[in-house]
Automatic annotation (TrEMBL):
Alphabetized GO MF terms: heme binding; iron ion binding; oxidoreductase activity, acting on paired donors, with incorporation or reduction of molecular oxygen, reduced flavin or flavoprotein as one donor, and incorporation of one atom of oxygen
Cofactor: heme
UniProt name for this protein: Cytochrome P450 2F1
Organism: Culex pipiens
InterPro entries: Cyt_P450, Cyt_P450_CS, Cyt_P450_E_grp-I, Cyt_P450_sf, Cytochrome_P450_fam2
SUPFAM superfamilies, per database record: Cytochrome P450
Length: 112
């Protein structure tokens, strides 16, 4: 392909994140996608939530650190549950023509 100079290219990573050649169960939430046979964390090069290449998100490391600290803080202070039980949670994304959007959930946060 010939791409003219100064062309803006926006990678659509949805296809990589849902590729059956990269993921055992691409349409379900499956943390085992990131575990080896011994249960240890392993990186998957197909997982690119902050885009790809030299122009990917410059704040990725800060974002990961902030998400970790925020999540740990919440989990230390609250126990989370669903009013409909764990089987009543649909983890599939809301599909739109442009992007995946999270569904709305009811959640109970009980202080520890």
């Amino acid at each position: 392909y010939k791409i003219p100079k100064d062309t803006v290219i926006i990678p659509m990573l949805h296809s990589v994140l849902r590729d059956e050649g990269q993921w055992e169960t691409p349409w379900t939430f499956n943390p085992e996608h990131f575990l080896d046979s011994n249960g240890n964390f392993q990186k998957n090069p197909a997982f690119m939530p902050f885009s790809a290449g030299k122009r990917s998100c410059v704040g990725e490391s800060l974002a990961r650190m902030e998400l970790f600290l925020f999540t740990v803080s919440l989990l230390q202070k609250f126990t989370f549950s669903s009013p409909n039980g764990p089987d009543g949670i649909d983890l599939s994304p809301e599909l739109s023509s442009f992007a995946n959007m999270p569904r709305f959930y009811e959640l109970i946060a009980s202080p520890r």
